[in-house]
Design goal:
Layout (H helix, E strand, L loop, with lengths): L8 H13 L4 H9 L6 H14 L2 E6 L2 E6 L3 H17 L3 H12 L3 H20 L1
Antiparallel strand pairs: 1-2
Helix pairs in contact: 1-2, 1-3, 2-3
């Protein structure tokens, strides 16, 4: 499958609104986003069209309006975005990303405990396989 074009920050905000709503018209997405941020109706419309063109959303006609719904889920978008980030900034090396997050961004003691539990759980699952 060819690589899907990356998603911009604004497009991601609009995609999140569609994921939250399940399916929605331009007006419904705009109403949801306008309650959270300043955004023009035409900007929402443009982002929805781009997301459809890029393969993130699909549409159906309801009268004169298009109704948008997800073509792919949030989890898939996260995986693709992280993979792209790893490839572009860290030469595909996940450990380099973790080192950056821990050393340069810093994590709290609680986050360290959560990370340790996650790693222990992952190791236990690997022993079972």
């Amino acid at each position: 499958m060819p690589k899907r074009p990356t998603i911009s920050r604004g497009e991601l905000d609009v995609a999140r609104a569609v994921w939250e709503l399940g399916e929605a018209s331009v007006g419904q997405v705009h109403d949801l986003l306008a309650a959270r941020m300043t955004i023009d109706y035409s900007t929402v419309q443009t982002y929805l069209r781009r997301l459809e063109t890029k393969g993130y959303l699909k549409t159906r006609r309801e009268g004169r309006n298009k109704v948008y719904r997800p073509r792919i889920g949030a989890g898939q978008v996260i995986r693709e975005t992280i993979d792209d980030l790893l490839d572009r900034l860290f030469d595909g090396e996940p450990l380099a990303l973790w080192q950056h997050l821990i050393r340069d961004r810093g994590i709290t003691a609680e986050e360290t405990r959560q990370l340790r539990r996650l790693l222990e759980q992952w190791e236990a699952e690997q022993d079972v396989q």
